[in-house]
Every structure is written in C-alpha cells, then in structure tokens.
Amino acid sequence: MLVSCLLAQAQDTHDRVGEAPAPSVSSAQPTAVKSPDATTPAPAPAPDPRQAQLIADSQKLLKLSQELKLEVDKSNKDTLSLAVIKKAEEVEKLAKTLKAEMNKAH
Predict the structure, then answer these.
(1) DSSP codes of every residue in 71-104
(2) How far apart are CA 80 and CA 71, in angstroms?
(3) What tens-digit pLDDT sequence spans the chain (106 residues)?
(4) Residue 40 Cα distances to 4, 5, 6, 12, 34, angstroms
(5) How many CA atoms lie less than 13 Å away from 105 in the CB half-sphere?
(6) Neighbours of 91 (CB within 10 A)
(7) Residue 57's domain spans which residues?
(8) Structural domain includes residue 95
(9) DSSP for 35-72?
(10) Is 12 within the bounds of a domain?
(11) 25 occurs within a structural domain
(12) Cα–Cα distance list, 94 to 19, 23, 58, 59, 90 (Å)
C-alpha cells in the first residue's frame, strides 16, 4: 500500500513538470505501517563456540592482512623490514589454522 502511494505521488510529480513543486509530505504521517500478518524474520540462533571462534579468527586475519599491506606499502621495492616478514608469517600461520578449522566441519 505504501509503495503504491509513493508511486502515485511520483507519477503526479512527474506529470507536473512545469508547475511549482508539490509540498513535502508531512512528518505526522507514518512512513511504514506494519500489518498484523507481516512476518518478522526470526532472530538468528546464537552461534556455537566454534562458530564464534571462526568469526573472531577471520576478523583477526583481516586486521593482520590490512596491517601487513600498509607496512609493505611503506617499504621500498628492494627491502622488507623484519617486522614485515614476521607479520607475513603470522598471517600465513593464522590462515592455515583457520583453513584447517573450517575443513573440520566438512
């Protein structure tokens, strides 16, 4: 119903190209009306501890890889600092661990 009202208003505005702009819709009107038969999405079940650990490790891997990229961008093409090499090893180790954990489920 709301969509049809908005479409009608848009069509009406489109038809009056040369006229003064239509007054804006009053804020007193509700923008979304919930019908009693509308279904709301069920809340997502709480993730199990393994799933929560996978999510945390994935976020850590993303953070580490972004930090590694920034450090590599700061270095020149001929040299890498020891910190960059250690961070790359840490990213690689975490990625392998995460991959192994994900494969355990399948």
Answers:
(1) HHHHS-SS---HHHHHHHHHHHHHHHHHHHHHHH
(2) 9
(3) 333 434 444 444 444 445 555 555 555 555 555 555 567 777 777 668 889 999 999 999 999 999 999 999 988 888 888 999 999 999 999 999 999 999 986 6
(4) 22, 23, 23, 32, 10
(5) 8
(6) 19
(7) 49-104
(8) yes
(9) -TTPPPPPPPPPPPHHHHHHHHHHHHHHHHHHHHHHHH
(10) no
(11) no
(12) 64, 58, 9, 11, 6
Amino acid, single-letter form, for residue 76:
N
6 domain residue, yes or no? no
- In this structure, the number of other CB atoms found within 10 A of the CB of residue 87 comes to 19
> What are the structure tokens assigned to 30, written together?
């509700």
Domain count, the chain: 1
| The token pair that represents 43 in the structure block | 């809340």
Give the whole-angstrom CA distance, residue 16 versus residue 48: 57
Predicted TM-score of the model (pTM): 0.53
